[in-house]
Structures are given as structure tokens and as C-alpha cells.
Amino acid sequence: MGYVLNRLIQGLTVIAAMAGLVFVGVYAIGNPVDMLISPEADQAEIDATIARLGLDKPLLEQFLNFVSGVLHGDFGTSFIYNEPAVRLILDRFPATLELAVSAVLIAILVGIPLGVIAGLIPDKPAGRSIMAVSILGFSLPTFWVGMMLIMIFSVWLGWLPSTGRGETVELFGIPVSFLTASGLKHLLLPAINLALFKTSLVIRLARAGTREVVGQDYIKFARAKGLPESRVILVHLLKNMMIPVVTVLGLEFGSVVAFAVVTETVFAWPGMGRLLISSIVQLDRPVIVAYLMLTVLLFVIVNFVVDLLYALLDPRVRRKGA
Amino acid sequence: MTRAAETRAEPTLVVKGLKTHFFTEAGVVKSVDGVDLTVDRGEILGLVGESGSGKSVTGFSLLGLIDPPGRIVEGSIRLSGEELTTAAPKRLRELRGNRIAMIFQDPMMTLNPVLKIETQMVETLQAHIKIGHAEARARARDALGRVGIPSPEERLDAYPHQFSGGMRQRVAIAIALLHQPDLIVADEPTTALDVTIQAQILAEVQTLCRETGTALIWITHDLAIISGLADRVAVMYAGRIVETGAIADVVAHPRHPYTHGLIGSVPSRNRRGERLTQIPGMTPSFLSLPPGCAFAPRCARADEACGLLPELSDGPHLVRCFHPMDRGEPA
Q1: For residue A39, with 0-12 CB atoms within 10 Å meaning exposed, 13-18 middle and 19 or more buried, which class applies?
Q2: B94 chain-A contacts, CB cut-off 8 A
Q3: Count of structural domains, chain B
């Protein structure tokens, strides 16, 4: 319990510190009034708008207003849409989350088996080819791969749609697209595109982990006990190898959700990333701040979950934390 | 029945001309280069040598656990009459942990850190016999009790890091004994432990092997440890057996100059106050072995004849030397 409480306090500290940084940072990037008001507007109109948005007050007062709002669950109202910023973001959140979860699933399902194989036979042609492919996955820019995927699968082959999200159905009140055929088709290309980099990362982690674990005495001892090779690999090796992989993947999951921006832009995926880009262009401060704050919150939560998962995988952590 | 008949006909283990070589970039490392061993049912054989003499590789070869770039290139290993060097991998797996088991050197590294003791014991049982989980757990608990682990029922649910080194080695021994194998290969199992624990474990392993009729190969660099434990001893040097015989005979009257040197370097009550003798030079690298007797460059008795490889002599006390020492001869 003390362990959980300790992590909770750390998380809250991070959120508080980020609130200050984010607010000041966004304040510095330009005057939104220039973007909001038509060039013909007179000084009185400009002053009225500035007063309405609360931009005439000193920075500290604006910040305190923001903080008190946040404490009441209000992250401010979008300058552009005139809607609560949090609602704008959360409306788009399921789409991004679905994309991110699909991408991470692909990365795990493809990356771990390939990484383990590459780690078990590092000197054979198969092992070397897997590593060569993973270097490609690392080095090719996401936007270019996305365009190539559209070129091949949408333009030339005509198999999959290139933009947007397909039909959605409600699941526990959240719109999801992976349960419909059209939704799956729309999801496939962006998910693969987003997964590419992560898959390469997982391959490398899994390979390094496998190579380290496979030389340990306990693997040799497991073989000396006469266990079938499948059990040696799937239980003895995998359970130890997964500890660093879970840590990194967990942390990466946060970044996949928060920064799916490029993929969402290329595939016109109606997610949070696209909202962020347009909000930055239009200097829609409350949305940017709310987005970044939610991202911080997401990272804190993900870190917390990873710590718990870590304890689940490694009994040695469990005892120290208790 | 058939196995019992075979056991009577043949010793538990017969190794003939075993060669295990490692094909490295620097050259062929002949870690084991023609080893002969015989271990009878229930017998304890001490396999003694310095670091790098090939004794551990011999042990791993017996279980077929040599990793590339190493492999067994020649020779025969017969376990209770069954040839292992030509056995299919599937058959080797069936025998490992079942008829032939191994205890490793470092108990801190042998048990999987993320699996409960129960899991690691139950899986060993279920790998070889059809047995339900509850029954397997009961057998695992009894096995822990036999090696002197207090409150075995609760300890089954613990993880390895909750055990001390000595306790972990007891768990490893309990795992090795689960199927009452014909042979256990123990690779310096007490080297990493406190001296007091060493003595306890030695005594317990000896008793347990006697009870179950399990033969034991105890690999060690410490002659003193096995002099009270083993029935026979085989001394290894540079991948070959240089002397073998009954333990009392070899310790009291070593015939190979190397064995003589090994015994002379062990502190003993009878020679209190004297300087310990040491063997000059170092264990040679396997990549640059002399063509004849590998010990010749460090040997005071070596002459031109030692440029050829001496054969192992005949009789109950065998020695691989052109100029063996006579009984009672001073160094």
C-alpha cells in the first residue's frame, strides 16, 4: 500500500509541475487574438474579445484561474469551437486510442516472436534478416511509409481505403470501429504504419533480452531437468525476457497515444493528433493546454500501470515495494 | 525389469574415448580429449582438476548439454546400457532430469528467479511422468523435506530470492533427486557456499545417494572435499584423465606427479608448519598444448620420452605417465 501511495504522490507532483510549464510555454507562442479577429475589427472589438477570453489579466492571474478551473474539472473553453476543450479532446480520444492499441498489439504480436527467433539463432540467415528488416523499420520516416502504404494498397491494388475511419458501433458507450468490416479495413493501414517503428523497437528489445537470458544458468538447468524445449522458451525464457520489454512498451504506449499525429495526418484519421495540429495552427490555447495536460496525466497513469505490471512479472520487485 | 537386468549387466555409466571439442575462431579447443570413466551403481566418483581441465565440460557432455560451437566429436557414453552420443534429441530429453540429473555450481543462478519453487519442481515431475498437480505438489513437498528444508509446504510458494544460497542448492538437489535418477552429475555444487554449509550438504547428498542407489559424479577442484565423500577419484588434466583409482589409495599414494602436486598443495594437519608445495607454472591453454604429455612442461620428472602421449596403465590404480611415482616415494 505504501508503495502505491508513494507512486501516487510522485505522479501528482509531476502533474503540478507540468501544469506550470505547459501554461507558461503555450502563453509564449503567440497572441491568439490575431488569429481570432478579422483584420477589419476596430480597437474596441479587439479589447472586448481580449477581455472576454481573459487575456487582459496578468500571466499569474490567468494561471491561477486555470488551476482553479482544473481543480473543478474545467480545462477552459476552446477559442475556436466555443466548446469545453476537454470535451473536444475526449470526443476524439476513442479514435486515437483504438489506433494506438491496434498498433501496440501488432508490435507485440509481430515483434516478440521475431525478436525471440532472432535472439535464439543470431548467426543464421533468418536471424540476420529479421535484424536487417528491423533497421529499415527504424530508419524509414513514418510519413513516407504511410504514403507508400496508401500508394500500394489503396492506389495500385485498391484493397484498402486510404483515409478516414470506417463505420463505428458503440461498445460500452464508446464508438469503436474494429467490430465492423469497413472499420477494420480503415483501421488496418494506419495501424500498421503506426506499428512499424514500435515493432522494430520490440524486435530489438526481445532479441537483446533473449540473448541475455538464454545464456543464464537457469535456462541450462531447465534443459537439464528434461523440460520440453517449448516450455524452456515459452515459460523460462519468455517470462524473464518480458520484464524490460513490458517496461519500454508501457512507456511507449503513452507516446503512441499522444503523438500519433503524423499517422493521423497522413491517413486523415479523426483523432486527437489532428485536433492538436489544427489547434496549434489556430493558437487555440485552451485546447493545446488541455491536450498537453491530458498527455501528462496519461503518461503518469501508464507509468503507474507499468510499475504494477513490473511487480507482477518480477517477484523480487514485489517484496522491496511492500 | 529390463532396466534392472541391464543395470546388473553393465555399470551405471561407461564413458569411452569421449572427445568434446569447441570450434572457435581462434582454433579447435579440445576441452575433453579422450576421457574414459566408469561409475557403478550407487558409487560416488570424484572428478578432480584445476579450472580449465575440462571436468565441467565432461559433466555437460554426459547430459548432452554442450552448446555450439562445441560438440561431442568422438567416443561413447553408455548410461545403464543405453548409448547417449547417438541418441535422438527427444530421447536425450526424456533421460535428462529423469535417469541422469545435474546439480550446478552457482545456486544463485540455477533457479529461475521469476518462477515459484513449486512451479520449478512440479514441471520437472510432469515433464517425465503423468501426474496431477496436487500429487506432484505433494511429492515436491516431500522432496524438499528430505533435503532438510524447514516447513516445506510454505516454502513451495516462495520464490528463489527468498532463499539463502545453501537453501537454494538444497532445492536444486531436491529437484535432481525427484525421479531417483541412475546418475547425478554435481558440478562443484558446494564451491559457492559457506564451509559449514558445504559439510552439511556433502553429508546429505552422500546419504541420499546411498538410500536411492543413485550413482554420483562429484566434480571439484578440491581434493580435500571428496576424500571423505567419494569411493573413487579420477584426476583430470588438460582434457584427459591422468590418474584414477580408489580414493584412499590415490590420496595416500599418488602415482602421477600432477596428482602428487595437487595433494601437496592442500593444507594438512600432518604437515603443520611446513611450507605448502606448489605446482610450478599454469594450466596450459587448450590452443597451445604440447604434443605429448600435457603436464611435461611443469613436471620435474619429465624427459624426452614425455614428448609422446603416455597411455593410461592397467590395473585398479591407473596412471597416465611414463615415470609414475612408486608407493611411498618422496616428492
Answers
A1: exposed
A2: 226
A3: 1
